[in-house]
Amino acid sequence: MKKMILLTALAGAVLGAGAQEGKKMLSFDDALVRTMTNNPEISALQYEEKAAEQERKAAFGLRLPQIGVTGTYAHLGKDIGIDLNGLKEPVKGLMEGMGGTGILPPEILQQAGALLGQNWGMTIQDRNTAFVGGSVTMPLYTGGKINAANNAAKINERTTREKGAQSRNALVSQLAEYYYGLALANQVVAVRQQVVDGVRVHLNDAIALEKNGIISQGDRLYAEVKMAEAERELLQSRLQARTVTTALSNTLNEEQEFVPVSPMFILEEIEDVAYFKDLAAKNNPLLNQVALKRDLAKENVRLQRSEFLPQIALGGGTFFYNYQFSKYLPTWAVGAGIQLKIFDGLNREYKFSAAKNTVRQVEALQTKAGNEISVLIEKLYNEMRTYHDQMPSIEASLKFAQEYLRIQNAAFKEGMASSADVIDAQLNLAKIKTERIQAAYYYDLMLARLLEAAGASEQFADYGKRPTAVQIRFEE
């Protein structure tokens, strides 16, 4: 038994040795700044928000003229032209007949003969041609399609910002969980260490009293068993503290190990649950996203309606350079065009109807989400109040447990109490100390989640600085 106690104590000493060496003191405010600066999720959100901003700017470009440059080379199957050589024979016959009658003078007939000897073909466009030109198109009326696209891009940008706010709020809750979780774990280690130290003193006393015949061997064996259990629980609490330390380091995205210095707190006074429900109705990022989704669905209705309306645009183009391009063809052109669908197999009608049903669906989901957030806030608020209401009872139990342990220690030395009585008193004190800091931890965690649901996580640190905030520190 003594060998087992020695090995367990040695393992605990190895874990505890230099526990604070190389660690940096960290306040919650500093931890929050580091999280919002270094966490990779924040960087991802910033890139997403920047992309949505660029998409919104791209949609505005639909209102502006579209200018382009085009270069073309073409090799046609043959030259494009007019060939009138087939008319030479009829004309020649006509001229000869008229010449025989003397109607036409000889000089005219001579000129006509020379003309008949020429080529009566004309090339309008050579088979090889190339040109470089520019074009401009400008939408005049699209039935509201461009407006719908721009509004949708603005809504998507706002939705992205709300998603970012939701993620930032969740990070605050996560930080509170790990920051105060590490404080809790460290304090549990301290409580377990106190138990180990107290049981060790009692074990030494039990060994001495057994030698003097004051207590039985069973009392001493009971103390040894409890010593082994206490050291095992100390070892487990240290491992748990290491796990939470890693989680906090990951949230901060820093390899450095930290020691939380901001105490946990419980508020003596806080706003009622209606306040947080009203706050959520205005600020909750999830509710705002659902509202924006409804707005986006309405823009889709406008977009589908535009398919029933005409599309009108202006356009023009010109050549900057051409190679063997016909001089008979114009080098520039301007015009206007209109397009109106008459029938497309009821495709537009069904899409328009689907868009209107989507709006109704999102409105129903918006009501459902609002109800769920309201229930969540009430649940978190009540849980937070439960931990608050537990604290007076825990404080009273703590004072009693401290006094009871003192009495049992004194009684044991006088032979009026057994080893089990003393050790049970020590374990009861450790249990109440742990309950006290756990109540504060869960109060702060519920408060962080409550503010997250209300869309006001940025206020969490300020709550701990209120005059009504009672700091819960570790009881030695």
Overall helicity: 55-70%
Helical segment count = 12
Largest sheet: 4 strands, antiparallel
Order of strands side by side in the largest beta sheet? 2-5-8-9
Our Rg estimate from Cα atoms comes to 44 Å
Question: What is the H-and-E element order?
Answer: HEHHEEHHEEHHEEHHEEHHHE
Report the strand count: 10
Oligomer: single chain
Structural class: alpha+beta
Mean pLDDT: 88
What percentage of amino acids are in beta strands?
5-15%
Unreliable stretches, pLDDT < 50, 5 or more residues? Answer: 1-19
State the separation between the terminal residues, measured CA to CA: 30 Å
- Assign an overall shape: rod-shaped
Can you characterise this structure?
By secondary structure, the chain is of the alpha+beta class. The chain has 12 helices and 10 strands. It has helices at 2-16, 28-38, 40-60, 88-100, 106-116, 145-211, 217-252, 273-283, 285-306, 347-413, 419-454, 460-463, and strands at 24-26, 66-75, 80-83, 121-125, 128-141, 258-260, 264-267, 311-323, 332-339, 469-472. Strands 2-5-8-9 form a 4-stranded antiparallel beta sheet, with no helix packed on it. The protein has a two-stranded parallel ribbon with strand order 1-6. Strands 3-4 form a two-stranded antiparallel ribbon. A hairpin with an 8-residue loop joins strand 8 and strand 9. Helix 6 (145-211) runs antiparallel to helix 7 (217-252). The radius of gyration is 44 Å and the shape is rod-shaped. The two termini are 30 Å apart. Residues 1-19 have low confidence and may be disordered.
